[in-house]
Amino acid sequence: MGEFELIERFFKRKEAPAPDGQAQPAIHSIALGIGDDCALLQPKPGMQLAISTDMLVEGRHFFADVDPEALGHKALAVNLSDLAACGAEPLACTLALALPPERAADEAWLAAFACGLFALADAHGCALIGGDTTAGPLNLCITVFGQVPLTQALRRDGAQVGDDVWVSGTLGDARLALGALRGEWALPPDVLAAARQRLERPTPRVALGLALRGIASAAADVSDGLAGDLGHILQASGAGAAIDRESASHLIAARAFLSSAGGPFDAERRLTLVLTGGDDYELVFTAPPAARTAVQAAGEQAATPVTRIGRIEAEPGLRLIDAHGQTTPWAARAFDHFA
Amino acid sequence: MGEFELIERFFKRKEAPAPDGQAQPAIHSIALGIGDDCALLQPKPGMQLAISTDMLVEGRHFFADVDPEALGHKALAVNLSDLAACGAEPLACTLALALPPERAADEAWLAAFACGLFALADAHGCALIGGDTTAGPLNLCITVFGQVPLTQALRRDGAQVGDDVWVSGTLGDARLALGALRGEWALPPDVLAAARQRLERPTPRVALGLALRGIASAAADVSDGLAGDLGHILQASGAGAAIDRESASHLIAARAFLSSAGGPFDAERRLTLVLTGGDDYELVFTAPPAARTAVQAAGEQAATPVTRIGRIEAEPGLRLIDAHGQTTPWAARAFDHFA
Closest Cα partner for B280 from B215, B335, B210, B217? Predict the structure, then answer.
């Protein structure tokens, strides 16, 4: 199977995906898709295009034996998560794919990968409009395009002193699964299965990002760990934050098991999973206290739990506050691919 | 040096690049660049965004010991070439970079790569607005954004029976250099040096693409070889073409040397270099005979030689015509990464 046949068979849709009732494919914005030198895309009048790129490398971002359907899902999900963090509505994506010969010849693998990718793309009305295919060590590079009304994009630099700090969903479970898969610790099968879903099939919080337009003062997605990604907001906004230790500890979905398990999962480890785990693809965002009801309503509208965990302060850096009001500094660390 | 420091030091510009008098950076279109979850981009009113992605893999698209400055140039040039083929004006690009540890630690290599990339980007007013950096086998994935007035994009599917077939510049010299570097044949130092420039520092024909708007009926860039890329136009347009064997043979810049050298460089080899060499990044395009003067004027305006080499015909496939009017079919083959 050659390069052009591979694209034709697995990545060129014969017709527009059927609307699923929830999200209409934004085909009206796309004049020309796969099969020319460029794709042509047009945001609606008064809209800006939001653009993000993420590259996934075998052995670094996923295991060689990962379920290809989950990989297709995740490769797009991590990009949609960036659109969510900007409050942008997904429009389209491109896919550049380097494949070793054995993968290029593995039709079942390619079909499952494409299936995972298109299922998530269709759910968000995100058309695959172009890309590139080449031989090489397995590498997936997706660039995603969304639209957002002028001046309404959620940015990292808008946090104000006194704002609340919020996060969506749960944090730390992806890292919990990764540790088990790496043999760092053992987990019961049901706990591992649930955590592994979070690692391999993250849910981009697109609906929440849209609902937070005009409400959140700043936002980022949690890909490198809460402490690091909140740290990016703090740095861009020239501020610091105090996080409630108790609220943060409760953010891990496996908290019931972890509390009873003890051993390697003491309180400090649980907190570290939440603060530095990474691969969560939740949103961390800030909003003024006057907007608390609006934030809760946005969470309900998006069917996404939101939790208030702290406050923006003038003093730079990240601090943890315990139940007795004691604060301890947290050396903000993000996951670093070259550290 | 960590991931964020690497981006900060080598890929985040402190200020807009100085205008060079030829091309103004289109910063007015960019609301938010490197350092947020998404970049924000906006074509001018009445414009569509043209988008293309190319991935370059070490050992496949370039040698491990390639001059990093030339690599930075080429990684962007091959993408700008796609914009040229659509008649789009460059606006911006994203860069996703997988680096092995020894490259990530090699500041001279990174600085030279960034220098080559930014020199070409500045010459075309193309801002680097985002990207991704990760550890992994060396892989460069650039997505480029241009703008083109509604309905004026040059496409592959517009060739009409009776149109002339044109190409810009010279073809086959990149493949000539590649063969010498691979040890397939030997070249005198001056011939190799000239051909190697074509391989390592291709010139994207952006100005020509812009000048051909409203004149060319179809266009593509020559990345996989003239026969293959013209074949894409023929397939998309539902037509065939007859190419003049003599005109095609003359398209290789090293023709004087090759004619005198003989040996491995017989007439058939020279023709094969032109038709299937690839990595040329010239434009192949079609236009009605009534537009010949306009095409020549567009070439002069863009300071790019253009040569008429054949004609679009109703009969599918690609044929060569010799000086005696004899036609022979050419089995259209494009370079295929998995062949």
Answer: B335
Tell me which chain A residue has its CA closest to the CA of residue B218.
Answer: A36
Cβ contact, residue pair B2, A132, below 8 Å:
no
Q: How many domains does chain B have?
A: 2
Residue B298 in any domain: the answer is yes
Torsion of CA B288, B289, B290, B293, to 10 degrees: 110
Please indicate if any CB of chain B lies within 8 Å of the CB of A149. no
Same domain, A76 and A194: no
B207 plus B170 within the same structural domain:
yes
Residues B16 and B144 in one domain: yes
CA distance A44 to B124: 26
8 A C-beta contact, residue A76 and residue A131: no
- Do B173 and B122 reside in the same domain of the chain? no
Residue of A nearest to B39 (CA): A51
Give me the mean pLDDT over the B231-256 stretch: 94
Residue A233 inside a domain? The answer is yes
Closest-CA distance of chain A to residue B54, Å:
6
- Quote the CA–CA distance of A6 and A4 in Å, as a whole number: 5
Domain-embedded: residue A156: no
Residue in B closest to A235 by C-alpha: B35
pLDDT of residue A300: 98
Residues 6 or more apart from B92 whose CB is under 8 A from it? B26, B29, B30, B39, B41, B126, B127, B128, B129, B144, B145
The CATH number of whichever domain residue B183 belongs to comes to 3.90.650.10
Indicate if ipTM > 0.90.
no
How many CB pairs (< 8 A) connect A and B?
229
Q: Is the dihedral of CA B145, B148, B151, B152 positive or negative?
A: negative
B153 touches chain A (CB under 8 A): yes
Contact criterion met (CB below 8 Å) for B140 and B73:
no
Going by C-alpha positions, the residue among B61, B67, B72 that lies closest to residue B95 is: B72
Q: Is A149 exposed, middle or buried (0-12, 13-18, 19+ CB in 10 A)?
A: middle
Residue A41 to residue B49, Cβ atoms within 8 A = yes
* pTM for this entry: 0.88
Residue A154: phi, psi to the nearest 5? -75, 125
A72: which 2 tokens?
């297709």
B115 interface with A at CB cutoff 8 Å: no
Helix, coil or strand: residue A204: coil
CA-based nearest residue to A242, from A187, A320, A307: A320
- Tell if the CB–CB gap between B153 and A338 is shorter than 8 Å: no
**pLDDT per residue as tens digits for the range B294-328:** 999 999 999 999 999 999 999 999 999 999 999 99
| Tokens 């992994």 found at | B136
- Domain span at A22: 3-149
Chain B residues with beta carbon closer than 8 angstroms to that of A279 = none
| A158 domain residue, yes or no | no
CA distance B156 to chain A (A): 6
Check CB contact under 8 Å for A134 and B60: yes
Alpha carbon of B146: minimum distance to chain A alpha carbons (Å) = 9
Looking at the structure, tell me whether residues B179 and B231 fall in a common domain: yes
Q: Mind listing the pLDDT tens digit for each residue in A171-191?
A: 999 999 999 999 999 999 999
State whether residue B138 sits within 8 Å of chain A by CB. no
| Together in a domain, A40 and A137 | yes
Characterise B108 by phi-psi region: left (phi > 0), alpha (psi -120 to 50), beta (else): alpha
Say yes or no for a CB contact (<8 Å) between A38 and B131. Answer: no
> Within this chain, do residues B195 and B57 fall inside the same structural domain, yes or no?
no
Q: How confident is the model over A91-124, as pLDDT tens digits?
A: 999 999 999 999 988 999 999 999 999 999 999 9
How remote is the C-alpha of A315 from its chain's centroid? 28
